[in-house]
């Protein structure tokens, strides 16, 4: 007798084998084995003529989905069928969530087992959990499958109905989505607020005081009994004090005069208030809170967080990472309390075990929070993990242990001081007992350091004391525009609004970035002009699709379907085919949408028109009878585009680019220009004889106004040869690339070794000695380990020709696919999660064929090479200096 167990991934299969009897065979399905058609080539020939074929859902026949086995999964399905022939029992052990239930259902439908079949679920991969799950197998939950299928069909209807409309009216390749479009609108609304924001300026005084040689500071808060204005008193729409506020607004002259008036006067402590504060630890992690905190602390994207967490789960280190429950089992609570007692002492234990209640709608209480796996928790040091896996496990371990620790007891101290008619305030905080803060401080990597940072110690003051004022400083302040969303704050907002589900946030944010709706800059999600255009179109013609409350209600309905409280078919009919259904709306609105207007982004206080073109956004201004256009640089955000910026961009089109002078050796004019990728310098004019003049980007830390002729000559001379490496004899150069200034050591057959220059280094003056120093430092980042020794991001399967693995790895320039000695980058716009074996094989074939073509091309005549050069020159010209 043998039992076949099917899980999703090879990693999970390897781990689970350790805990099953020898006669159990574990195989991986490599994720989903069936799905709706992803491309025209996957649509079955029997339905290709149907009007709904592209949807993959027969909307006229009760929304019957058409499921296909992708090319890259056919071999896997065959292997699973062969394995099933030798089995007397089948156990489907995919993940315990809706997605996992759906995968099990599809496997059952495809394999059509004639042997007894069971569904096994578990939330951690430990020996105890697997043994318990084997004894408590169940049937596939058809209701859960139906709910997931409805969700999949609904997402397909929204995406495949609206996306073609965006291609036609705005730009090819854009996409709309049930949750994605709402998330993009949130980013756009925040950027609109930033654009409408008016800065306010105010002044106050800061005092540097001393009591018995103990220094402390104090802030001006009142003047003659009236509150002194601060940032909260300003109206962001006007930059003025909000109407009705009774405050004193100090200008620079007022602050300086007050400072002089108070100099040498007696200070008096008028009141002291001490208020005890108790802080409780945060609940253990859910999917959403883990994404938020890892983004804040570790600067990990939601996508990276989920990928690393998946690896930790499949290797048996943590419990299942897709959960919206903060519940902990009795076993987990006991393990956490044991850690607290051993590592921190009994005084740090909470008096009673803490159990948390999930407040979010639709939470599945049967699931547990994310925690270390097992009945005893391995400390981070005991795991043997390293890098980002260790960092994420450490975060999960600390949060789980901290939730069973004692409260933190603190004292908030407020001291009021008076000098003449001016009232000052000093605030302090004393940590009387750190409690859980010894293990975990939200938003800080080092709890001990954070404890010190949190304490603000004031001297031992009492009412009537006269501290000595050492210095008074007049300080100016400017109100700040609303902060842009980070991945953490966007995830928090989506969850609080009930939009989508936490398990989907990582892929949603990834899609927003991949599709060009947002740029991730310094951890902030900045919406693009394309995002503005798409959001405006959807707001005007399909307001429900981007309405958070509508999307939240839709999510609730999907949960009701899962709970059996709503019928899926009537809901889909009403949503898509009803009088106000999506299909009807698209037919009605399509003719009313003017493509030129749809591609135009209307911005307040801007006469210039912003349009979305084939090569990206550009500005358009009428100049007499003609129209002048100029590309908008990628780093210029919608909030920052003002009339002054427009003038700068158009100047080189109307009056020509700025001339820095003539090159000392060639005598050619050096221009400074602005292109799609920012400012750059150019040597000479573009002519038929010189179609590709020498160009060089200006480093981001060098303002365009500060570029001199000398700097320009240096940039145009890049790359600089610094010398040879004393150990290898290889050449070392300095230059500027897409990721900034760098040095490179050419090691011949061993390849090239790159290092980024530090902020203090200058690419034009960096020395050979400094380059050798940088090269001697260990390489940081994703490229630090050889791909042979580091773990794959994803294992796609084996190559059909030689049966060797095809995997995706992290590389210095992003994820890449590796098969044998052939590497090919994952194309821009495609995520690691979306990549399939069939797509990877196509990319590998095209890489191999292009390599062969390039080899053959080298033997061709010089004339063909000249044509190629001319063509590449045109492409470069388009990129750097396009006028859409």
UniProtKB/TrEMBL annotation:
EC number(s) from the headed UniProt entry: 5.6.2.1
Protein name as annotated: DNA topoisomerase 1
Subunit structure: Monomer.
Pfam families named in the record: Topoisom_bac, Toprim, Toprim_C_rpt
Low complexity composition bias: residue spans: 860-875
Catalytic EC class: isomerase
Species: Anabaenopsis circularis NIES-21
Coiled coil spans: none
């Amino acid at each position: 007798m043998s039992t076949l167990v099917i899980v999703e991934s090879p990693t999970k299969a390897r781990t689970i084998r350790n805990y099953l009897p020898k006669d159990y065979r574990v195989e991986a399905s490599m994720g989903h084995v069936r799905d709706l058609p992803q491309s025209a080539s996957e649509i079955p020939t029997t339905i290709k003529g149907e009007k709904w074929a592209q949807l993959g859902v027969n909307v006229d026949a009760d929304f019957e989905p058409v499921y296909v086995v992708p090319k890259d999964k056919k071999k896997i399905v065959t292997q699973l069928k062969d394995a099933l022939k030798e089995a007397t029992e089948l156990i489907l052990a995919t993940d315990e969530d809706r997605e996992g239930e759906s995968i099990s259902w599809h496997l059952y439908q495809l394999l059509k087992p004639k042997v007894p079949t069971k569904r096994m679920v578990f939330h951690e991969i430990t020996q105890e959990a697997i043994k318990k799950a084997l004894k408590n197998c169940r049937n596939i939950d058809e209701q859960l499958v139906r709910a997931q299928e409805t969700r999949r069909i609904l997402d397909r209807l929204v995406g495949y109905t609206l996306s073609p409309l965006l291609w036609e009216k705005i730009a090819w390749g854009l996409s709309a989505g049930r949750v994605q479009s709402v998330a993009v609108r949130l980013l756009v609304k925040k950027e609109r607020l930033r654009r409408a924001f008016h800065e306010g300026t105010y002044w106050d005084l800061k005092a540097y005081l001393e009591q018995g040689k103990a220094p402390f500071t104090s802030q001006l808060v009142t003047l003659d009994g009236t509150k002194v204005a601060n940032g909260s008193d300003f109206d962001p729409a006007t930059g003025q004090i909000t109407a009705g506020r009774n405050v004193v607004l100090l200008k620079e002259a007022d602050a300086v005069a007050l400072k002089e008036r108070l100099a040498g006067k007696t200070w008096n402590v008028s009141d002291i208030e001490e208020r005890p504060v108790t802080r409780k630890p945060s609940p253990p992690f859910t999917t959403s809170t883990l994404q938020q905190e890892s983004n804040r602390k570790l600067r990990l994207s939601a996508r990276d967080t989920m990928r690393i967490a998946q690896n930790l789960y499949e290797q048996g280190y943590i419990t299942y990472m897709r959960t919206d429950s903060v519940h902990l089992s009795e076993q987990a609570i006991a393990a956490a309390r044991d850690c607290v007692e051993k590592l921190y002492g009994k005084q740090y234990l909470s008096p009673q075990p803490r159990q948390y209640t999930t407040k979010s709608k639709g939470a599945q209480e049967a699931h547990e929070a994310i925690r270390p796996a097992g009945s005893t928790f391995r400390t981070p040091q005991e795991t043997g993990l390293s890098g980002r896996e260790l960092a994420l496990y450490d975060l999960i371990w600390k949060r789980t242990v901290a939730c069973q620790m004692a409260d933190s007891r603190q004292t908030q101290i407020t001291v009021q001081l008076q000098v003449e008619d001016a009232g000052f305030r000093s605030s302090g905080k004393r940590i009387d007992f750190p409690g859980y803060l010894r293990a975990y401080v939200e938003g800080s990597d080092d709890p001990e350091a954070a404890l010190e940072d949190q304490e603000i110690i004031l001297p031992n003051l009492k009412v009537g004391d006269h501290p000595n004022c050492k210095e008074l400083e007049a300080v100016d302040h400017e109100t700040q525009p609303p902060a842009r969303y980070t991945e953490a704050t966007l995830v928090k907002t989506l969850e609080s609004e009930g939009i989508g589900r936490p398990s989907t946030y990582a892929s949603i944010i990834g899609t927003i970035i991949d599709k060009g709706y947002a740029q991730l800059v310094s951890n902030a999600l900045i919406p693009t002009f394309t995002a503005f255009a798409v959001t405006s179109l959807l707001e005007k013609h399909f307001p429900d699709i981007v309405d958070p409350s509508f999307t939240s209600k839709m999510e609730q309905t999907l949960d009701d379907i899962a709970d059996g409280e709503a019928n899926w078919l009537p809901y889909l009919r009403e949503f898509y085919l009803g009088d106000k259904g999506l299909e009807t709306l698209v037919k009605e609105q399509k003719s009313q949408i003017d493509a030129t207007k749809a591609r135009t982004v209307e911005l307040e206080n801007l006469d210039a028109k912003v349009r979305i073109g084939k090569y990206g956004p550009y500005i358009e201004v009428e100049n007499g009878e003609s129209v002048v256009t100029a590309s908008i640089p990628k780093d210029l955000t919608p909030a920052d585009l003002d009339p002054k910026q427009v003038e700068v961009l158009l100047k080189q089109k109307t009056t020509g680019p700025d001339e820095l002078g003539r090159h000392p050796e060639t005598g050619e004019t050096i221009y400074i220009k602005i292109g799609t990728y920012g400012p750059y310098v150019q040597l000479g004019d573009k002519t038929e004889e010189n179609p590709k003049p020498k160009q060089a980007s200006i480093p981001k830390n060098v303002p365009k106004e500060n570029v001199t002729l000398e700097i320009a000559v240096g940039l145009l001379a890049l790359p600089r040869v610094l010398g040879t490496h004393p150990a290898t004899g290889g050449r070392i150069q300095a230059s500027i690339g897409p990721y900034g200034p760098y040095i490179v050591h050419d090691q011949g057959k061993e390849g090239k070794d790159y290092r980024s220059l530090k902020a203090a280094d200058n690419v034009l003056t960096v020395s050979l000695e400094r380059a050798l120093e940088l090269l001697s430092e260990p390489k940081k980042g994703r490229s630090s380990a050889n791909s042979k020794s580091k773990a794959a991001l994803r294992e796609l399967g084996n190559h059909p020709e030689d049966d060797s693995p095809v995997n995706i790895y992290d590389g210095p320039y992003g994820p890449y696919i590796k098969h044998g000695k052939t590497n090919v980058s994952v194309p821009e716009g495609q995520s690691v999660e979306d990549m399939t074996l069939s797509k990877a094989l196509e990319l590998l074939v095209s890489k191999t064929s292009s390599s062969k073509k390039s080899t053959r091309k080298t033997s061709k005549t010089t004339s063909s090479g000249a044509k190629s050069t001319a063509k590449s020159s045109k492409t470069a010209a388009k990129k750097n200096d396009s006028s859409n």
